[in-house]
Design goal:
elongated; 36% helix; 112 residues; 1 helix; alpha+beta; four-stranded antiparallel β-sheet
């Protein structure tokens, strides 16, 4: 029976978790960047000017959609100069941001 060496210990308990953390972080950053690009494309297609937006990880009461879709709380200015705020979902439940699907959940004229 072979005993663990210091190299084995470092690989299993330091190297592998570090690799997983860095890999997951890179995937998260890439997905968030894709979501922001999709948001800017949506706003341009709808003739809105983006004033402010916040990526939401848990968008109550739509948290069950959050597995693959991206949620944003947005503040927009329409072509008439009126400010609107609301929620926007980008992507689909099954395909995530690979889908071109977008849904305006609620856009109000209230303040942010």
């Amino acid at each position: 029976m072979r005993l663990w060496t210091l190299g084995d210990f470092c690989l299993v308990f330091l190297g592998l978790p570090s690799f997983l953390i860095i890999g997951n972080t890179l995937i998260f950053v890439a997905m968030r960047q894709r979501a922001v690009e999709r948001l800017e494309q949506w706003a341009a297609a709808q003739h809105f000017a983006m004033i402010e937006f916040h990526y939401r990880y848990f968008a109550h009461p739509w948290w069950h959609w959050g597995a693959r879709a991206a949620f944003f709380k947005v503040k927009l200015r329409d072509k008439d100069g009126k400010e609107r705020c609301g929620w926007l979902r980008l992507g689909s439940y099954f395909r995530g941001l690979k889908s071109d699907e977008s849904e305006v959940i609620r856009i109000d004229r209230r303040t942010y």
